[in-house]
Structures
1.
Amino acid sequence: MQMIVYVFIFVDLALALFEDPAVIPMPIWGTSLVEMICLIVFTARLFHYAKVIPRIRFWKDPKNICIIVIILVRLSLIDIIIYGSLKSTGYNAVRWSRVLRPLLLVNVTEGRQLRRAFRSIRNALPQILYVFFLFMFSMLLFSLMALKLFGKRNLFTVDGEPYFTNFLDIVFDLYVLVTTANSPDVMMPAYNYNSFFALFFILYILINTYIFMSVFLAVVYNNYKKHLKEEVRQLVKSKRQKMLRAFAVLQQPGSGEELVVSQENWNQLVHLVQPDISNAHRELLWSISDDCNKSHIGKLAFVQLPDLLNIQVITMKSRPHPLHIWFPLLYDSSVSRLSENAVVFYRAFVYIYDLIILVNAIFIGLDEENPLIAYAEWAFLALYLLEILLKLYTWEPRAFFAKHQFWNWFDSVIIVAALVGAIVNLCIKSSDGYTSRQILDIVLILRVLRLIRVVDSIKRFRTIINTLIKIGPTILTFGQLILVVYYIFAMVGMELFKEKVKYLEADSTDPYKDSCGTPLLRGTTFAKNNYCKNNFNNVVSSFILLLELTVVNQWHDILSASAVSHVSARLFFVFFHIVVVIIIINIFVAFILEAFFVEYTVEKSDLQTSLEKKIEELELSVDKYKQLSCPFFCLRAQQSVHGFKAVWLYNNLFHLFFSGYKTVDGLLQRMFEADLSLEDADDMDDPNFSNITFDSV
Amino acid sequence: MQMIVYVFIFVDLALALFEDPAVIPMPIWGTSLVEMICLIVFTARLFHYAKVIPRIRFWKDPKNICIIVIILVRLSLIDIIIYGSLKSTGYNAVRWSRVLRPLLLVNVTEGRQLRRAFRSIRNALPQILYVFFLFMFSMLLFSLMALKLFGKRNLFTVDGEPYFTNFLDIVFDLYVLVTTANSPDVMMPAYNYNSFFALFFILYILINTYIFMSVFLAVVYNNYKKHLKEEVRQLVKSKRQKMLRAFAVLQQPGSGEELVVSQENWNQLVHLVQPDISNAHRELLWSISDDCNKSHIGKLAFVQLPDLLNIQVITMKSRPHPLHIWFPLLYDSSVSRLSENAVVFYRAFVYIYDLIILVNAIFIGLDEENPLIAYAEWAFLALYLLEILLKLYTWEPRAFFAKHQFWNWFDSVIIVAALVGAIVNLCIKSSDGYTSRQILDIVLILRVLRLIRVVDSIKRFRTIINTLIKIGPTILTFGQLILVVYYIFAMVGMELFKEKVKYLEADSTDPYKDSCGTPLLRGTTFAKNNYCKNNFNNVVSSFILLLELTVVNQWHDILSASAVSHVSARLFFVFFHIVVVIIIINIFVAFILEAFFVEYTVEKSDLQTSLEKKIEELELSVDKYKQLSCPFFCLRAQQSVHGFKAVWLYNNLFHLFFSGYKTVDGLLQRMFEADLSLEDADDMDDPNFSNITFDSV
């Protein structure tokens, strides 16, 4: 069901590719029909949702109202009818309802993370606005000063226009200076006139670019954190209350006065909540909850359950190697064992392959059409394949390709893809005598990607990369956020500025070919720099143009030219800059900062510590056992997962790896746990429970 | 003594203005003589310092060794002699010892804050380097990919040069792209060829510009904070140990078993430590330390003393207004009282003047040569003067111009300066019939600065501004840091690139006037944009050029042209970018972030709370009294200081205002107090004391 809704949202958004101004033109009845179908699906989904949840809650939820309004507006067809009729009579019509499309993505029930991001922006808005007003005030003061200082001096810009004589132009120029896009240019006439005037611009940049932009980051960061903390607090509170209710259902009188839950009930509950949990993992969790081996646990230990389940423990079944089963004599022979110990497991092996990768990097840099280099490439491919095969020979294949073995997967996929690509390329070449550029491109990219592997063998790099991989899902949330905002701005931009600038191919016969198809741009920087393709003529180029505006450099040239009309383009950009650069990019930066701080500073929680201790205890007891008689594959499996603690539970052939948290929510909860525990203790409904929590803290 | 050392360091650094390449040329024997004198002063200072402190500590301190080496190198004259002799024989000589000059500023005993900043950078360096290597690695991979993808496609840049064919050029272009300085340009040839290639650049910008730059900020921020915390911890620890030793000296047996310090001794100590403390302030502090009125305090309360003294309590003597003394009848008349109550104190007065300022802003925007506007300006000046006089009429002058009354000072200085400027301008104009541009500039700037006043009447703006004012001293430390780094880079840049580019006045007859005096730059963007003044021909223009490089936009144009020689210029900039933009600017951003977080989140300490409570208690008792009979000037003084809590101690005519911390160290200590208190309790030498601290936490 979720997938279907997402597919239809995607189709709905993708319509922009086919609607006028289109990448791939389609008749208007076609796009309208598809849009209708999408809207019907969304309506059906909404009806279904309304049936499932209570009526009062449905009407109280602002997101449902929002969806209904959007669907009604778009279903009413007013927009399409007006557009169609105006279009047919030759008028320039505006389809403003397209702006509403991405809002559906935000309001669908599944977009929880995205809504959270929007909510946190909304909550930070008043604070941001105050700083923004102060920033605007400072900008206006500087503009006034610039007008008074430079306006009467008869200075001229490089283009021969009067310098700093119009107040509104000055304000805009100084706004651009905040983004550093016109950095030395705007200063040069004054600086050439008198070196002391550079002071004015230095002061301006210091205050408005450096200090105010940092203050924006501080305000956005602080509000984002505060809001997140409040949300997590609510989450933790409701979770604990639910667990207390569950306890009330399962409780039974214990040995003393206290009420307890038996191991049996607990096991059943865990099975219900997480059907795929392994026995070893469950037993480990129970042994932590039931510290004194009483085979029942109290209220406090019971409430911990969701936190325990939230800690990721990777369970790995330790099976004998298939070759060991099929060819036991060969696989256990002393030569084979030597190769395992001497080659695959030890540092030398890693170093040799790092060296091979470096040599490979140099070879990639050389001309690939030289036959010698082409042959060397095959040799490298063979070496990489050999490495994977050697690893597979010593590690149990299912352990090697376990879900969490990111780098093994990465290696194998890249190498196999490169092999396939190279062979396809060879086939095409030998049959046609002609190299397909597309396939060659892919092969070349795969070759370069292979080099990333080096990173994994340096420990310091690995921690940074691991942090980045961990925040991957949240970066995706920001991707959605950016998509929504870009889509809205692209729609508005296309309606306002489409076809103002044209990109003409080299063989075009247009008289204004060199000035982007319009006489207005003749001789401008825009035309000279070949920027003609930066326009709002279709969705794809609009998105790329917006990305360039996000990066900010040269945006005043790009925008003033691609829009040709001045004032609306300026307003468009200033608004875009505030929303995307000042707010969203700062939230993005704030999130990365927070993620790295957590990685650097947050200590392990009590639960994590006790879990680790338990695992270590078990490992200790195993260590003793291992020295007696450990089959070779146990040693292997232990070394295969670096960075994690491996545990060898010999009796049930399971490995347990401890590795951080499963979800972003879990991480966030840990981040704020220190601040939360005390507050929650006070908030708790049950007075007894509050005491217990308090003691445990 | 301190002042003298600073003056000579300043003179030493300022020598760069007079040495070749000079702003104001001076003969070589002149600058050498001044340099000699400076060096002799530094040596004398060092001898003096060596006599005062123990010999072992002197030789253990790396900064002393550093100073000795610098002075020896520079005193040996080798540098000057080689330079002079080579110069006289016509060779191009390099004076490399000038690079050492700013290091003296760092190593002088007084530069503690600056040294701390350098130490924190040094400690953060390994972490930064790891991220930097990873960043370089990612950049090299992308460059390799770009070479493979675009190198064989026969694309050309706007200048007609082959696009992405040389690996090292690609690396440099992509490094520039990280700084966003060549943002769309570097992409355009590939994008024009095929829209899909935009993906390559989008991915590159996302990873290297957004993610890696944020990671740099995170690493710098985190290390900076960690290091600062450790330094503050050491400071707090040594402070407490010193206080314990002081207690051991002053202690005497108390009522029970515990040892105490009597009020008499405590008073003496406070008088010794802070001779200018007011009696009211001292009594307030004592009443907080001695909670139970026992007229002696225990160890714990004694140790608090430095923290108590660190909390800023503004003491204001409440004197009767001079007019009240001189013309009591007139000043106390009912008309006079009406004016006080109805005009100056109430909101209406503030609103009216805000409105006047806004109208004034519009008038400033208009043409000042119009006689009507010029007359209006006199009217505004009169209005502002009237405001200050009215305020002085109602407030006691010494209270109005107290040290902490920032805005009163600001207003008065600006208005009086504007008045003086306007009168001088009028005199010159009426005598010569000619307006001096310089004086007019100053008058105009003062007029605009007057508008800043509006900010103070909006509460939200005031808090932001107050935070910025508070971090002012630390921004000065960063200013010194930047000065040191800029100076070194300017010296190196001047030796490498001087006279490569010349700025020629409009009336010059040089054949290459339009291309900055060199045929190499004919037709380049650099020459076309009038960038000729961006050169390394003297210290001032070098500093401004370095500032432009810090802002980063257009730097590749600026640098490649102003240096003309390519490779050294590239290395120069990359190094400059790493040091200034990646490290120092990030520390600057980190500090502003931290300051705002403290402002937003850190709660008051126990001591602060008890101090405030005490002040409030006193105020409560006064409030009752005030209703009986409060002289009018008490009401006045209380309302004069907004933002602070005012206390009226009627019996001794003192006002106490509570307002945050005195020093940056105090603020820092508060920031980390929560984390420090427990650790310190464990570290304490005295076991009894450790318990006491722990209880109090």
Note: Residues 472-601 of chain B form a domain with the Helix Hairpins fold (CATH 1.10.287).
2.
Amino acid sequence: MSKVRIGIVGLGRLGKVHARNLAENIQGCELTAACSLVPEELEFAKNELGVLNTFSDYEEMTKSDVIDAVFIVSPSGFHCQQVDTAMKNGKHVFTEKPLGLVVDEIKETQEVITKHPDQVFMLGFMRRYDESYQYAKAMIDNGEIGEITLIRCYGIDPSEGMESFVEFAMNNDSGGLFLDMAIHDIDLVRWMTGQEVDKVWAIGKNAAYPQLDQAGELETGAAMMRLEDKTMALLVAGRNAAHGYHVETEVMGTKGMLRVAQVPDKNLVTVMNEHGTVRPCSQNFPERFREAFVREAQEFVSCINDKRQPEVNAYDGLQSTRIALACQESFDTDSLIEVGKD
Amino acid sequence: MSKVRIGIVGLGRLGKVHARNLAENIQGCELTAACSLVPEELEFAKNELGVLNTFSDYEEMTKSDVIDAVFIVSPSGFHCQQVDTAMKNGKHVFTEKPLGLVVDEIKETQEVITKHPDQVFMLGFMRRYDESYQYAKAMIDNGEIGEITLIRCYGIDPSEGMESFVEFAMNNDSGGLFLDMAIHDIDLVRWMTGQEVDKVWAIGKNAAYPQLDQAGELETGAAMMRLEDKTMALLVAGRNAAHGYHVETEVMGTKGMLRVAQVPDKNLVTVMNEHGTVRPCSQNFPERFREAFVREAQEFVSCINDKRQPEVNAYDGLQSTRIALACQESFDTDSLIEVGKD
Amino acid sequence: MSKVRIGIVGLGRLGKVHARNLAENIQGCELTAACSLVPEELEFAKNELGVLNTFSDYEEMTKSDVIDAVFIVSPSGFHCQQVDTAMKNGKHVFTEKPLGLVVDEIKETQEVITKHPDQVFMLGFMRRYDESYQYAKAMIDNGEIGEITLIRCYGIDPSEGMESFVEFAMNNDSGGLFLDMAIHDIDLVRWMTGQEVDKVWAIGKNAAYPQLDQAGELETGAAMMRLEDKTMALLVAGRNAAHGYHVETEVMGTKGMLRVAQVPDKNLVTVMNEHGTVRPCSQNFPERFREAFVREAQEFVSCINDKRQPEVNAYDGLQSTRIALACQESFDTDSLIEVGKD
Amino acid sequence: MSKVRIGIVGLGRLGKVHARNLAENIQGCELTAACSLVPEELEFAKNELGVLNTFSDYEEMTKSDVIDAVFIVSPSGFHCQQVDTAMKNGKHVFTEKPLGLVVDEIKETQEVITKHPDQVFMLGFMRRYDESYQYAKAMIDNGEIGEITLIRCYGIDPSEGMESFVEFAMNNDSGGLFLDMAIHDIDLVRWMTGQEVDKVWAIGKNAAYPQLDQAGELETGAAMMRLEDKTMALLVAGRNAAHGYHVETEVMGTKGMLRVAQVPDKNLVTVMNEHGTVRPCSQNFPERFREAFVREAQEFVSCINDKRQPEVNAYDGLQSTRIALACQESFDTDSLIEVGKD
């Protein structure tokens, strides 16, 4: 069985994680190409990972015959267009979340994808490939907690990133807290419950960095959602967790509750010292989701080899963006917002 | 120092807890009288606790000179009127929550209370007297978690009570989930943050017992609140926790987070068996808050002896009911509701 | 029912805990007398607790008719003789552990106790009255963990006491780590398993305070014991826990394991801050065993009223001292020591 | 850089784990050969892992030039001889623990290894490559818990293996509990403390399966060890944990304590159901140490490429077997045994 040849676009922090996985940890593939406008990033691909073909022009890479598939890890605003280009050039496509920032644009991309049913399309909601989330999902699907009544999702970045974010936010648009931070949790809500969101209200507060009020950004925000079958969803997104990278999910059912990462344990070590009984915490997403990134990429390659589509599709991309935008609108207008669906 | 003589009204489940504490565990007081319409309850007071004076007429008890203070543990609908009567007859008053079910009635009672500044008035928000809540509050007040951005409160009763509740709800009005169950959590929101609630949205779902839809009751509900300084509050109230009596509170601040009873540990025992690593859970409020009830009653007696008013006052009673009613109205009308204050 | 009138001897740290409980928290008794050679301690009893009769002569107190029972909280070396005196003067007796420091002396006291079967005798192994230990014991007795194969007991005092202990040890004899610290755990071994100890080996190390080697004292020690039915016991005793008062017990059985206080949680609060996820720890025995002391004293009073003997008897006192002494001898001689029984 | 070509011998349960890792998850190597007497195992290697060269004669494999290194996962009794053969044929060697079952034989192998300093020799104490153990070791080496006073190691297999073990033990010699099960923990004691063992006492009990007494085998055993600097070590080894695969290590120091896998959490999921708050448990070593096996094999390959020897050497193999044998002798003779060193 010949190896799937992959070209990556975007070699920032997350791009490097993906590139190294594709080059070293994924069975059945080769990282044969890399595309970036930053010469240092192409040097990294060449020297550290042995990537043979480098490109500064994305379209050129998608047209070349040194790759079978692209891995898009570029800034969110480019995703739709890069998906379209790769699809039209006959390549399989993996793209990082979000699929896009604008609903209409995503719908067009969705159409492009639909027209190429033989090419694999996958969206990077990697939590679905985390061992603990999969264990939880299997319990739910087995009926072990009964019918779901409520889901609570926290996604809070560690405080150490705050200062650089504030600097960034003064001159840039992150897309807003809900699109930037909560989109993984929005996907979890839909994936875990199997329900669409009906209505949302979102609020937020800037406490440590009140200057974010001027930037129209949020340090911490919360959204409450009613799903179509009345299931409740509570989301907290933030950028200022003193203890680390706090991604926690709780699902309440009629027969039990479960929590994934109730606290963000870094490993299996417990320390007892003058502070009390201490469990060290995960500090960032590459640490917490290291294996999930590997399993996700492995699934992408397996889908190509098995000629099947992955579970996460373009509609998931459309709806997650739509809900995130509804949260933002709710916050901006201080009103209840209804979320549509197709 | 002579002992404070107390008369109790209401000897149901919680009434018996209070009566036994007053008779046996509180320093500086005597339980000298009991009032009930149920002869068996008066027999209990006489025979088990050695209460010398029993009454079937509440007003008569408040007028008698065998007591200095009343302890009101009757159904919520009677609280306001019973407070008024006792106050007017010169007695100190402790009443269980809620202070009342109707805002205007509470305001009148508040006026009565205000006119008797030398008589102690205390409202039974006993969680404020729980050791763990006091530890958490002290940490917050010491600035150890910085400025509060969000508070999350869960108050969920164990599943074993569901069937009798459904039966009850078919023929009675509980006042609604938010007034019946969430009022302690509403008090915690105000106490922990020191802020008033500005706006609420409440939702709910009946999953295991859909017949509650007809009764206008809820198995599980959630409310999101924005406080005056934009601090966020998330409340979950319910009656259907498979594992026990789940009362959990989380406070997020700019420098750290804390949780009270992250899971409802029953005691310090951990079991490892075929289910995994298991921590047994608290099953009901007398078990979880046994000591808090004692400390609360002790504080009431101490206030009388020290001629001072407790921290929990009539305004706390007014606001907690007001917010609970706003949650209920939000749920009933599916809209954002603004909460007033005086 | 008239109240049991109790006289206490010894009003040091633990004596004050007991005295306050007897005066304020125990039903059916009165603290009517106190005996001490320290005038300030008698002042405390008189002024803070309202004790009417104070004595500097212990025998005089035991002969007086203002008491029905004595509560012995004096230094360990006096216990046997004070038990004898009280028994001979017709009083019920509670004594703190250990019953004595010398096996032969304990046997004589045991005989005295046996000759007064109508007087209650109780030994202060208060852990048996702790809610979590009782829960664990009930699980074991119900067969929930099957047959016991191993028990592990930790009893480690917080570091903050080390410096004063070192100073003390330079000029005094504590009786040795095993008699001074491990005796509660030795009682737990016998109580939980229902087995006698057959053979022991004990070792120890002074690391932070090597000067204890000169004093013949230990900072931390361990003992392994084989019980008569081959059940294994592991004990760790120490004085230098950085995080607090670490009393932990584990019981392994053929169907499961259980742990009491796997870590010494202070309360139900969890903190997430720059150190990680933190559970504050208990700092001392009055904090950890507050309720156990109350329940223990209550049991003593109940035994007197019910004319029955408590579960903990003189033989428990004999064996626990015997085993502690065997541990010490094993450590001193670096050899396996067989423990006798009667 | 050309890839290290590896031949594996032994394709049982653990052998398959290693083989798959070498074939799929380790960078810089190829699994080019496999040796087994079981035809099905060679089929597995060929068909599932694409191994090109299969052997039924081990010496032949070590002489062939299709491999640079051997990976020995055969029964323990063959390890020494297979190491010798491979060394003499110029191959790098990885062998599973224990290095051998007989001290004199290990010493001879040690000499052989010493004579081939340019060939990498590595012993499979994979826990040293587990992330949590490495985190703990780094804390210790940084002085974060001060000087070590005591180490406690549990290694208990899940109950589900008991019946087949009893059957096996009736007709075979496992080497005894301490050599079979405790050897990883013995290595941890030496690795964590940096000290040699001076003296041991070992005890044991068969409770669920008393027939093991006849077989001279143990269901559960414990050993206490005094190390050369008086540091204490407590080991519990067993085969009958109801909840799963319980490998736990605790290190006490003068400034704090730490525990690795205080309970054997399977993942990050917490369940709240009718049993209480439940954490699922790891069920076996491939699950618990999946990543450690990968990192261990990666280290072996890296050592070959970097021309350096790994941290775990033949002397570690000698001492760990020596200590395990001393434990067994102590149990067999019911006496304290001194452990030698070279």
Note: The two ends of chain C are 39 Å apart (CA to CA).
